[in-house]
Predict the structure.
Amino acid sequence: MIIKILGSGCKNCQRLEDNTKQALTELSCEAKVEKVSEFSEIAKFNVMKTPGLVIDDKVVSFGKVNTVDEIKEFLK
Amino acid sequence: MFEYITNILIYDWLSLDPTHHWVKSLHFFIYDSIKISFLVVFVISLMGIFNSYFPIDKVRNFLEDKKLYGLEHLLASLLGAITPFCSCSSIPLFIGFLKGGIPLGVTLSFLITSPLVNEIALILFLSIFGVKITVIYAVAGMAVGTIVGFILGKLKLEHYLEDWVKEQLKEKIQQSVLQDSRGLKQRLPAIKEDAFDTFKRIIPYVLGGIAIGAIIHGFIPVDYFERYMAKDNLFAVPISTLVAIPMYSNASGIIPVIQSLVSKGIPIGTAMAFMMAVIGLSLPEAILLRKVMKLKLVVIYFFSVASSIICLGYIFNILI
């Protein structure tokens, strides 16, 4: 599983990354977490608000910082 | 209320002499710090809630459908003014608009107005200058966005977008839309954290701006600027605008400075031109825009926004 965090590097993207890692640890799930901060890369996912959360090339959330519980739901 | 607290603190508890320059400065600093911090916290919390529910995809679809012979620029400006603005989302937003088929000129109307007319600026303006000046400011900011977007739209500048942007625009696919069904209670923790971050980010500018305002307030004689920046000095408006472009601050930092300058005799039009140039045009913004636009378009953008700010400065100085 590959998880991508879309965002130019503001506080919210950082928090989303932290929450995602936390969720992975809690589920003891192995996955690669990548940060996508180039605008040209972010644009390919067609989101208008950052941060965005992408799991295996599918946008599951954008424009908000998901909680650890929410991310666990996405991962299931 | 804020005045009362400040008076008690300075004159009763510290028993300072109100005629001293530095006491005047200190009074200004404490009064404005309390008042502005209070208002900023209030506004960013409220806007955080608004932002969380704000349907940006609906705004885009709305603009997409409208062909209104130029009026779509006014509409885009209006939406730019009410849309909560976060600079980290401005580029994805820009691409999203273009990809949705909204013309470049209309997108620019949105992009120009969004930082110029924002909730923090309006609330602070209202508390310092009253209703009339606030309305004039809001209308002026939207006028800049509408007019510049309209002109740039007519110039057909699409080929000055960066190549990767043009590449992206070839595929007109539907943007991701996800329903957010969370209730307010579930949203609040994230909104609170975000508001706290925003506060931490802007408070240095706010206190810095108030400190500069306080020094001007306490130490510069009332008619000082009138000698250099009087209404009949034709160069005052363009000079204030050009000086302001490299400066970077946000609305909450620049308004206390404007407040002091106006009270020391700087005409309101000159002061507004200065303020608009500080918050609407800046080096960080140029760097951000450069990521999606070729240098020539960034220069055209800055040049046209600066020119229209200068025109507005003159108009205000004549009218008010």
